[in-house]
Amino acid sequence: MYVTLATIKQHLNIEASYTAEDTYLTHLYNVAETTVERHIDEKLTDLEDDQHAIPTPLQHAILLYVGDLYQSREGNAYGVSVSQIPFSYDYLLSLYKNYAPTNTEG
Question: How far apart are CA 38 and CA 24, in angstroms?
């Protein structure tokens, strides 16, 4: 994992001692990691540094996507107004987008 469960919980304002959703949060992380990889058309392992970490903007994009998935557990929302925040998920990923697509399925 490029982002720890502790960091995910901190991002979502979930108490570290609350463990009832740890499996679910890990599942959301896996979805977010795969989505980011597919979005930038690049394997994240190819972007790792010497400590096997990926760039922090990509880590934050994963956190943003986990947050979206956690907050919006269904495909529809009723009675709410939603606005996209400029320079967030899409912007962070655009910094690493490989415009010569490679096959990221593995």
Answer: 21
